[in-house]
Amino acid sequence: MKVGIGQDSHRFDFEDKNKKLVLGGVVFHDHPPLSGNSDADVILHSITNAVSGITCVNILGKISDDLCLKQGITDSKVYLLEALKYLGESKIVHLSISVECLTPKITPKIPEIRKSLSNLLEIPENCIGITATTGEGLTEFGKGNGIQVLSIVTVV
Fold it and tell me: Are β-strands 21-23 and 128-133 bridged in parallel, bridged antiparallel, or unpaired?
């Protein structure tokens, strides 16, 4: 058994009216998107980093830059799927995610995010825990300037 921790954070892009806010593969309508070259899906980026913590192959960086900037692939699902390739015979058995932001409200979308991640990771929805907090407004994320996500992945 191995456990990996991942983190990612992005600021909101209040100017971009064309891009959508995507979290865990789920679109949040009527909210500003996150700033980044890709779709800036902080949930998927955090999980990708947690998997990289297990495989010791960093996907977010040169590999994702090649996919995004050279091949035009901005869907963060592709980055996570790339990270999963390095697990070999190992399989994710549990995922725990903590989201910190003032907006949007995450709790109403947790079932949809769990379903999206379940399909992507090929694990049961009841093996995916998601919590959300404003952090009492103590950080830039809790003040409404962006979103931070911490993920813990358990692999056997």
Answer: unpaired
